[in-house]
Design brief:
The protein is an alpha+beta fold and 226 residues long. It has helices at 2-5, 33-42, 79-83, 131-145, 158-162, and strands spanning 29-30, 45-52, 55-62, 64-66, 69-75, 91-105, 113-127, 164-170, 173-179, 197-200. It has a single domain, classed as Pnp Oxidase, Chain A (Roll). Helix content is 17%, strand content 34%. The longest helix has 15 residues, at 131-145. 23% of the residues are buried.
Length: 226
């Protein structure tokens, strides 16, 4: 699966736009393609924002990346997926992915912060109708959670495919933003008697727990072995 995530584009950076240049802490923004892909590939859940009946809606959902496209899936009855399909010109969306790497504790309450890595994607989402692209997208969604799992599970059958909708979003208008380092206190606060520094956070995994109805003789697959 790792190979399908790679970009075939020779460009090393995305082009900044009015929507991808932050108005605050612009020095933390990055348009580097590899940095954007790395942040996306490490995540599981994105937040998909769109406008419904004149009001903003933001939904958490799984996603998968294949080259310069992101895929999101859901029920065929899902409102955003229906809005992106049919004869409509697509659905204008904003998709975000964020990793929190550390809690930044400052001497002053004002300067508390977080170390993070995030990606924001703007664009028009479209329904995927081509059967081969749908298969590729659904495999990518499974492998986004556990790389290698799509090849080690039963593919969706006709009934399941009929109940599943997939939308795609091209990585065209996109940026990353990151914060690293410690607290930035005011010079006059450095002598205050309060601890300052970073509490690092890291993602970890517990030992896999087999299903009680697992057939005898089925061992732990290599992709789940530490």
């Amino acid at each position: 699966m790792q190979g399908t995530r790679e970009s075939s584009s020779p460009s090393v950076a995305y082009t900044p736009t009015d929507r991808t240049v932050p108005t605050r802490s612009a020095d933390r923004a990055s348009y580097d393609r590899d940095a954007v892909h790395a942040i996306l590939d490490e995540g599981y859940v994105c937040h998909l924002g769109f406008v419904r009946d004149g009001a903003p809606v933001v939904l958490p959902t799984l996603y998968g990346r294949v080259g310069e496209r992101l895929y999101v899936h859901g029920s065929t009855g899902s409102r955003p997926l229906r809005m992106a399909g049919g004869t409509d010109p697509g659905l204008e969306v904003c998709l975000t992915v964020t990793h929190v790497d550390g809690l930044v504790l400052a001497r002053s309450a004002f300067h508390h912060s977080m170390n993070y890595r995030s990606v924001v994607v703007h664009g028009t989402a479209h329904e995927v109708t081509d059967p081969e692209e749908r298969r590729l997208a659904l495999d990518a969604l499974v492998d986004q959670v556990v790389p290698g799992r799509a090849a080690d599970s039963r593919p969706a059958n006709r009934k399941e495919l009929a109940a599943t909708a997939v939308i795609r979003l091209d990585l065209g208008e996109v940026s990353a933003k990151m914060r690293t380092g410690g607290a930035h206190d005011e010079p006059e606060d450095l002598s205050l008697p309060h601890w300052a520094g970073v509490v690092p956070l890291r993602k970890g995994y517990e030992a896999p727990v087999p299903n009680p109805d697992l057939a005898p003789g089925i061992g732990l697959p290599d992709y789940l072995t530490p």
